[in-house]
Amino acid sequence: MAPFSRSLEPEWLDELPPEDPRAVRSRADLRRVNAIMGNARIIARHLGQARRVADLGGGDGSLMQAVERRLKRSLEVTIVDRIAGLEVFDFLAAPGRPLDAIVANLFLHHLTDRDLRRLFSLAAQRAPLFVACEPRRSRFALAGSHLMWFIGCNDVTRHHAVISVRAGFSGRELSAAWPIVDGWTLTEKLAPPFSHLFVARRDGIV
Ligand SMILES: C[S@@+](CC[C@H](N)C(=O)[O-])C[C@H]1O[C@@H](n2cnc3c(N)ncnc32)[C@H](O)[C@@H]1O
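Above: query sequence and S-adenosylmethionine SMILES. Below: predicted holo structure tokens.
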């Protein structure tokens, strides 16, 4: 059971211009946070044979580069991020090239429950595999999020870490937002130490 309810608050990073030095530094911090969370490793483990991949809210693309290093092969990656002028709902709704998988890393927790259901409904029509790594909403992760100064993160990242855990997920919350249609296998669980993993796989996809 979730130890506290989900709450969304604006992130300073969303309000700073992308070229602001504090935003630039915070994106560099994020690479270290991802490394500590092990998110590239966790995502790579669930991508199977996927080659054409879209990363929703993919930031500067460094997470998918780390995934490729883990896989020891290159992928055809589309980074969908508003910092590059791409909006996830427009991307998913528009007819586009076929995708083997959609990835979201530290992105879904930005969404309201309603937008999450809308995004999942579009995503289920665009690719047979969806892999997400998000902040785990737990007391342990919340305690960890207060220690970001320890690895030298700036004020923007420290603020982001705490509110991201509060907006994160636990239990089967993401599965409950996936459209109710036959033919999908859903996996949702803690991915230690601090991540919450969600995988939706259309039956028959390896
Ligand atoms: C916490 S960052 C994660 C970046 C990246 N996934 C990573 O792990 O390094 C969240 C990203 O989502 C992007 N974002 C937020 N809302 C978005 C939207 N509606 N459409 C596209 N990108 C969005 C932000 O610009 C930001 O780069």
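The chain has a mean pLDDT of 94.
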